[in-house]
């Protein structure tokens, strides 16, 4: 076994154990063991378990993202301070002050990627389990916690006539080939669209004006379009079972972000203003989204956008109009 396989081995066991637990539960309530819907629901159950376990990490991610956005004004001052200084001592001093800034705000640029990084071993483990179904079935072997009989059951399972172990590039063959292509394309589009919408709603509503104008935002805009393309291209090789997992996970993320943006928006963002507008419509006092407490009169005035000053109309006298007409 190589190093990569050794690292993923415990994750493969964990993934397969959780799937088998849900599989037996659905089998107990009446779904056949070889039913594709039984295994599909088991994969969705795996998503729910992993994402529920990641909720504390997600809360940490939200705090880190909020901290990154709030420190943008200080980060701009730091960059202006060392602008044009390219010597090693200046770069080192800037890096130290930047790290101190991150520490003071309790955040760092990598915290936003933490939930995805934690999910990746489970994702790759599930990919290895499902993509190895056919080989294990032919050799009469099991995979991780799955016995040979369970491997055979999974290999025979399908939804809408498409085997769960088949992919766009490696279809089920025969009459199921077209069904595999259609279902794979639909799942890939759903997977990439849900990921794009999730990131787009964060950037459109849950970022302050300072964050939107920062260099960090340019990187986020690049990732907004690059990541869906990467997963979309990679999806042509994913088994349908893996596409189900990733799509369900993305839908969870989209709903989770919608809840956070609506209930716990970033200070200074459009979502924060909309929250206080909804409170105002209900007759409630606006709140400071950073502390959750009611805003003072000074804070309310400071949070209101400035009204554009139009040109004042000066009415002319009748005599002036007569002179101009002559």
From TrEMBL:
* Residue ranges constituting the Membrane insertase YidC/Oxa/ALB C-terminal domain according to the UniProt record: 39-261
> Which Pfam families does the record cross-reference, listed alphabetically?
60KD_IMP
Question: What sections of the protein cross the membrane?
Answer: 37-59, 109-130, 178-197, 222-246
Primary localisation category: membrane
Compositionally skewed regions (Basic and acidic residues) per UniProt: 294-309
Q: Where in the cell is it found?
A: Cell membrane; Membrane
Please give, as recorded in its UniProt entry, the membrane topology of this protein: Multi-pass membrane protein
Q: Which domain of life is it from?
A: Bacteria
Keyword Plastid recorded: no
Keywords on record? Cell membrane, Chaperone, Membrane, Protein transport, Transmembrane, Transmembrane helix, Transport
Q: Which InterPro entries match?
A: YidC/ALB3/OXA1/COX18, YidC/Oxa/ALB_C, YidC_ALB_C
Region annotated Disordered, chain positions: 277-326
According to its UniProt entry, what is the function of this protein?
A: Required for the insertion and/or proper folding and/or complex formation of integral membrane proteins into the membrane. Involved in integration of membrane proteins that insert both dependently and independently of the Sec translocase complex, as well as at least some lipoproteins. Aids folding of multispanning membrane proteins.
Per the similarity annotation, which family is this?
Belongs to the OXA1/ALB3/YidC family. Type 1 subfamily.
Q: Which NCBIfam families match?
A: PRK01315.1 (NF002350), yidC_oxa1_cterm (TIGR03592)
Q: How does it assemble?
A: Interacts with the Sec translocase complex via SecD. Specifically interacts with transmembrane segments of nascent integral membrane proteins during membrane integration.
- Output this protein's name: Membrane protein insertase YidC
